[in-house]
Amino acid sequence: MSNSPRMNGKVSVVTGAGSGIGRAAALRLAEEGSKVALIDLHAETVEKVRGEIQAAGGQALALTVDISEPAQYREALQKVASEYGKIDTLFANAGILGVVGPIESIEDDDWDKTLTNNVKGTFTSVKYAIPYLKENGKGSIVLTSSLSGTRVFSQKGFSAYSTSKASIAAFGQMAAFELAPFNIRVNIVAPGTIETNISDTGEQEPEVENMNTKPVEFPEGTVPLPEGSGKPEQVANLVLFLLSDEADHVSGAVVHIDGAESLFVG
Ligand SMILES: NC(=O)c1ccc[n+]([C@@H]2O[C@H](COP(=O)([O-])OP(=O)(O)OC[C@H]3O[C@@H](n4cnc5c(N)ncnc54)[C@H](O)[C@@H]3O)[C@@H](O)[C@H]2O)c1
């Protein structure tokens, strides 16, 4: 743990905490003194992250939950509150890539799967956390959108994913406005290409190869900053700032974190 922890005494809930950006944010929050509730679909991965946090001297709870199933998620929040006494911050980050394909060939159910997981999952993650944050007298929420759906609309076959991420950015701004009177801040991070396991959570239909659009696929070298693609730990630093009291006048912001990639690929 750091010498003067920035999240000392806080309790944070992180969804999608078993991998990638969520895992990195959970580790970073714990390093800065927060107790962390780790929520993910996969028991093994959240258990592993819990072990990493404990080994470093932090405190964490591992909870196997599908955030698009409200009953499971509500039960998980109750467990967090009874174990840790309160909830201060929420990083609603869990998401999937889902189906990638031309609009006319996307199965209706595949569309629903992406939208249900990403949009309804984010909505319920926020909705059921609100009573705890209100009870606390203040709170901070960060949602994970993406460049896809905020600045970039040219990735072939990304209509379902980009629609889900645009919805999250809109929902986050509406939530910031609605929750401000309760001293609850809501911000949105919109990452560019970050090295995680996200591509394993999607399926590209073969027709994508034949789509008659100009290809923009984030090829090598499209990130202007010299280091190339981002790392989950870099997004975690931004999330830490937005969740912390250091950002106490920041709400309703959509913060792009992409090494200036979206200025190059649009
Ligand atoms: N990696 C990128 O380039 C990138 C860019 C922009 C936005 N994002 C967004 O960042 C977020 C995190 O993704 P990542 O890149 O770390 O991917 P990842 O696949 O490494 O991690 C996502 C985690 O979310 C979990 N998850 C997914 N759906 C869930 C559900 N319904 N309930 C509980 N857990 C669930 C997965 O099990 C996984 O552990 C996602 O919302 C993604 O859309 C990623």
From TrEMBL:
PROSITE patterns: ADH_SHORT
Annotated keywords: Oxidoreductase
Keyword DNA damage on entry: no
Pfam (any one): adh_short_C2
InterPro entries: NAD(P)-bd_dom_sf, Sc_DH/Rdtase_CS, SDR_fam
Oxidoreductase is among the record's keywords: yes
Family, as annotated: Belongs to the short-chain dehydrogenases/reductases (SDR) family.
NCBIfam families: PRK05653.2-4 (NF004203)
Protein name: 3-ketoacyl-ACP reductase
